[in-house]
């Protein structure tokens, strides 16, 4: 069991840190831009980052700020895929630690820039307009399966083994990813919007009539 | 210096903002040398999310929906198609948008308990609170407690609808139009709409 898959519903955590900024240090914006460059040029995609986040020591996952985790994940990925070597990364890091005002090398491929911006506008649509025969229909009662642990999942822990009602059967099919190991979402399949009463998920909360919606890939559901 | 001490020192150095900044500079620098990035890419990307893809897009959509019921109907039915009417492009993390509407008695909140899925074309990049593990843990079980951390108190009889973005749809909330704004133009209305309000963690107020 990976704690990262089971965040929903954890109690006694104290107040939310209502930090409304996107970046709290200038290096985070720079790192983010390198990350989007990696996405826009096909070096990696979200699932690669998620696999790394989900494989972290869970205590570290809670301990470190969002972009600190990204920094660790990006370096690990780039070295493991031989885009850069650990040695040159260490040397360059030391160089910039010793020379904090040193400029970036005046080199690079400026064609990358528009490619990345265009990627922001095209995205990578997971929708597949293929004929599918969804197993469930609107109004069906479904049970969420408890899938075996995987390197990457899109099935929140707090909904496993729970029962809800299909609210919407989305048109067509969606592919999650085909480049990382998952628990069954590497093929295009129907996706369902399922409705739960939160009081059915946690019977010790006040009954306010609240509901929760979650989208499920078909492989995560069974008839109830 | 003993090995242990040396290790501690090294560890400490690797957990400072100075270290993270140097490490990030090292990454961009290696990318430049290897031709994996341009000299202007970082600045262009940062500028893009400051001026082209940000919460100002979502606020414009909300203001239009408040003033044009027919547009709101089309937005609720097919958000990607409707925003194109405003000359707005969708894209990354917004290929499949779904808009929901706050109404008297019903308040919507959006979360991503597994990571940080967020409707980029309408809101730009997610702020820190959305990615906070504490937010993600608590919002599904105790939404009123979380709203209180944001300074929001709903009337007692309001029901909450929570949208956990676990697959491929990205959710966006039209907040309730505040009283006393009759006759306001779209630009003035858009200025009332915060990022938080467009995910249900804030209210629009005049």
UniProtKB/TrEMBL annotation, chain A:
This is nitrile hydratase. It comes from the Bacteria. Residues 127-222 form the Nitrile hydratase beta subunit domain. Belongs to the nitrile hydratase subunit beta family. Keywords: Lyase. One of its GO terms (molecular function) is nitrile hydratase activity. It catalyses: an aliphatic primary amide = an aliphatic nitrile + H2O. Residues 1-107 form the Nitrile hydratase beta subunit-like N-terminal domain. The lineage of its organism: Bacteria, Pseudomonadati, Pseudomonadota, Alphaproteobacteria, Hyphomicrobiales. NHase catalyzes the hydration of various nitrile compounds to the corresponding amides. Its EC number is 4.2.1.84. The keyword Lyase applies.
TrEMBL record, chain B:
Transmembrane segments: none annotated. Fe(3+) binds at residues 112, 115-117. Keywords: Iron, Lyase, Metal-binding. It catalyses: an aliphatic primary amide = an aliphatic nitrile + H2O. GO terms for molecular function: nitrile hydratase activity; transition metal ion binding. The keyword Glycosyltransferase does not apply. It holds the Pfam family NHase_alpha. Residues 19-201 form the Nitrile hydratase alpha/Thiocyanate hydrolase gamma domain. Its EC number is 4.2.1.84. Belongs to the nitrile hydratase subunit alpha family. NCBIfam families: nitrile_alph. This is nitrile hydratase. It comes from Hansschlegelia quercus. The gene is nthA.
């Amino acid at each position: 069991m990976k704690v990262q898959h089971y965040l929903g519903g954890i109690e006694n955590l104290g107040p939310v840190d209502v930090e409304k900024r996107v970046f709290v240090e200038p290096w985070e914006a720079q790192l983010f831009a390198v990350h989007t460059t990696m996405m826009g040029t096909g070096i990696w995609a979200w699932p690669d980052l998620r696999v790394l986040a989900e494989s972290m020591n869970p205590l570290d996952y809670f301990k470190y700020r969002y972009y600190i985790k990204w920094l660790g994940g990006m370096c690990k990925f780039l070295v493991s895929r031989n885009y850069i070597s650990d040695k040159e990364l260490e040397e360059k890091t030391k160089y910039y630690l010793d020379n904090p005002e040193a400029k970036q090398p005046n080199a690079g491929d400026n064609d990358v820039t528009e490619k990345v911006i265009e990627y922001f506008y095209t995205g990578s649509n997971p929708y597949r307009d293929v004929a599918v025969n969804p197993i469930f229909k609107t109004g069906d009662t479904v049970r969420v399966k408890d899938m075996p642990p995987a390197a990457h999942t899109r099935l929140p822990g707090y909904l496993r083994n729970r029962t809800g009602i299909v609210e919407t059967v989305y048109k067509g099919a969606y592919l999650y990813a085909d480049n990382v190991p998952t628990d069954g979402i590497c093929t295009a399949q129907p996706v369902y919007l399922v409705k739960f009463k939160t009081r059915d998920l946690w019977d010790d909360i006040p009954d306010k009539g609240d509901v929760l919606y979650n989208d499920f890939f078909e492989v995560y559901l069974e008839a109830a | 210096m003993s090995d242990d001490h040396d290790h501690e020192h090294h560890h400490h150095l690797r957990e400072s903002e100075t270290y993270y900044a140097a490490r990030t500079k090292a990454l961009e620098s290696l990318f430049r040398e290897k031709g994996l990035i341009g000299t202007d890419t970082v600045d262009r990307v940062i500028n893009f999310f400051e001026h082209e893809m940000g919460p100002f897009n979502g606020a414009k959509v909300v203001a239009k929906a408040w003033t044009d019921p027919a547009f709101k109907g089309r937005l609720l039915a097919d958000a990607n198609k409707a925003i194109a009417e405003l000359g707005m492009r969708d894209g990354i993390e917004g290929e499949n948008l779904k808009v929901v509407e706050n109404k008297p008695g019903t308040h919507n909140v959006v979360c991503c308990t597994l990571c940080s899925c967020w409707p980029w074309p309408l809101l730009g990049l997610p702020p820190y609170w959305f990615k906070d593990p504490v937010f993600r843990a608590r919002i599904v079980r105790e939404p009123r407690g979380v709203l209180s951390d944001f300074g929001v108190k709903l009337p007692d009889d309001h029901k909450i609808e929570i949208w956990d973005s676990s697959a491929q749809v990205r959710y966006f909330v039209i907040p309730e139009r505040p009283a006393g704004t009759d006759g306001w133009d779209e630009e003035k209305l858009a200025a009332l709409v915060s990022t938080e309000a467009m995910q249900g963690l804030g209210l629009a107020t005049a």
